[in-house]
Amino acid sequence: MAFFITTSFARDRMDSNTDTIKLGKEYRKVSADIASLRNKLEDAKNKIPLLEAKAQQAEAKSKVTLEESSNQASKATSGKLKQAKKAEKLANKAKDATEDAKDNREEADDLKDKVERLTKDLDKKYKRLQELEEQKASLKNDPSTSTSAASTN
Questions:
Q1: Could you read off the pLDDT of 59-97 as tens digits, one per residue?
Q2: Domain hosting residue 66, numbered range
Q3: Which end of the chain, N or C, is less surrounded by CB atoms within 10 Å?
Q4: Is residue 147 included in any domain, yes or no?
Q5: How many domains does the chain have?
Q6: Does residue 150 sit within a domain?
């Protein structure tokens, strides 16, 4: 009977030591994940205004090029081939600028979605970190654990 109680107590101490070690490893991993997510979030937030400005510039360029193309097309109605080719070239430039603006807008929207996703992921990690801190505190307050096991974190 005494052997069973002793081995049971020793197994509980080993389990708590193992739990403490696992808890410390997960705590460090979650903390590293939080740092990584914060960096990614900061990068994404910084890129959004740049992409929006780039999209605005492309839209302005598109409008100017469309106007030039329209003016050139009006001149090309006189039937000269050179003017018609120039009008076509300007129309293609306007089309490219419009596509650039659209691409930049889409990229900015994608980044906004990424910011939302990263924010949600970060919230989850902070909640998990809080849970781990509570578990850590309960292990330290548990009288069956040794003080050396609790201080390994």
A1: 898 888 888 888 877 777 777 788 788 888 888 888 888
A2: 10-139
A3: N
A4: no
A5: 1
A6: no
**DSSP notation for the chain:** -HHHHHHHHHHHHHHHHHHHHHHHHHHHHHHHHHHHHHHHHHHHHHHHHHHHHHHHHHHHHHHHHHHHHHHHHHHHTT--HHHHHHHHHHHHHHHHHHHHHHHHHHHHHHHHHHHHHHHHHHHHHHHHHHHHHHHHHHHHH-TTS-HHHHTT-
Residue 51 lies in a domain: yes
Q: Quote the CA–CA distance of 66 and 91 in Å, as a whole number.
A: 6
Q: Exposed, middle or buried: residue 82 (CB in 10 Å: 0-12, 13-18, 19+)?
A: exposed
Cβ contact 31:129 at 8 Å:
yes
Q: Is residue 148 part of a domain?
A: no
